[in-house]
Amino acid sequence: MADLPILEMRNITKAFPGVIANENISLDLKKGEVHALLGENGAGKTTLMNILFGIYKADEGEIFMEGKQISISSPHNALKYGIGMVQQHFTVVPSFTVAENIVLGLKGMGFFIKTKTVESSIEKLGKSYDLPVNPRARVWTLSVGEKQRIEILKLLYTGAKVIILDEPTAVLTPQETEILFKAMRKLVNEGSSVIFISHKLDEVLEISDRVTVLRGGKVVGTEVRDSVDRRSLVRMMVGRDVLLDFDKPKTEPGKTVLQVENLTVKNDKNLEAVKNLSLSIKSGEILGIAGVAGNGQRELAEAIYGLRKPVQGKVVLNDKILRHTDVAQRIKGGVAFIPQDRRAVATCPSLSITENVFMKNSYSMYLPQSPFNLNTRAMQRAAKELISDYSISTPSTKTQARFLSGGNLQKLVLARELSTKPCLIIAEHPTRGLDIGAMEFVYKTLLAHKERGAAILLLAGELYEIFRLSDRVAVIYEGEIMGYTPPDPSFTEEIGFMMAGSKRGEIS
Ligand SMILES: Nc1ncnc2c1ncn2[C@@H]1O[C@H](COP(=O)(O)OP(=O)(O)OP(=O)(O)O)[C@@H](O)[C@H]1O
Q1: Where are the domains positioned within the chain?
Q2: Where is the ABC transporter domain (predicted)?
Q3: Is this complex's ipTM strictly greater than 0.95?
Q4: DSSP labels for 44-57?
């Protein structure tokens, strides 16, 4: 790893109405390094990278590429300098093929693309970086990990030397993460440089050469990998120790709240994603569903919440059979839902924080005199309380949800769903994208709801999260439950076998 910085950002400042997202930030990137960018939700990581990729213009500060000052006016312009970014939300076109997506918008392609030549060079490029793709596949048929691969290959195809990955592993399975890390190692060994944003400290420690920590829009410090550990990074980020190690409250499960009977649900490709599945959860109990992403978890959650019509089966809430696709009935019945897609399913990006918080509520409590007059003041007061309880970093209750950072948007969803007193909580990846302090808060909140008597269905990608929170663990594979285990790490290997399709007898 040579010492010459390939890229330098000097004294970058960027303000949005009511918030200084970046304050006098300096960051340098060496040739052939993975440089991690860490920080709490809203610390300013994405903003800084959006400036580097030409999405935003800094109010102050300079950028140097190999010693020369450059001015980046757009993502297209950034790519010309060899700077590319894979954002948290992919920009691929689902109905196009992989090859079409990769060459889309590239200059010099003209109207007549030499399809065969492009396809074969993409295939070769993929193989050479251990990122195999089928260039002829339509993007909508691909997994999230494969879509991300296309975004990375697109950058490599354009010759990017500085690659920014904004929380790339948040949506990946452990296997896909391994594939990505292998490709990252190959990239840096061949002289590229990677800026890696992640909240997962173990990953940061595994893959990075250096780490820069931001807090409240400022740099706390830049350290080489070997001089830091999990604890020191947490202290730099949060300013205190976060242990994520607390006892589960001991509750005696009460009466059955949710009963799912012989549910079969199809996915968007019209294939059976959930097959004849039955489960039940009692009051005061957390059932954790472990499984590799894409094994029917999403379809199961959506069918229980009424967003997806099952082909067969019953969903029973507190002894009452629910009508399929009747979400209003679930809301009235006290069901909370934290979906995995916080931008497209969980929130309305162009509505304010207040409106997003109250969109599921009965507005009646905020109607003072006439049904046409919402008591917006009372709503804003209540929204303010939630912003403070859930530490949502935002300038105001009137800010549109789309301006929140990824983690803060997730906190907004949690605030809305958990602040009522739901009898059933369906939580899909509730801590995805959250910083470690926020994660601690969510764990404690979910456990408090369990103690209060809520039944909780937890669908999480990380086993440690399932072990910490659940009372029972069910393992799902291809839409079927392979077996149950107690929430104990000593069952990890057995769970691994079940996640790969082996069955086990129910033991709890
Ligand atoms: N376009 C925008 N308009 C207004 N405010 C914005 C905009 N983009 C970001 N912000 C604000 O700037 C601050 C920093 O946000 P940023 O997205 O950079 O944080 P982050 O460190 O990436 O957080 P996370 O880990 O949650 O993704 C936040 O308070 C956010 O609300």
Answers
A1: 5-238, 256-334+420-499
A2: 7-241, 258-503
A3: yes
A4: SHHHHHHHHTTSS-
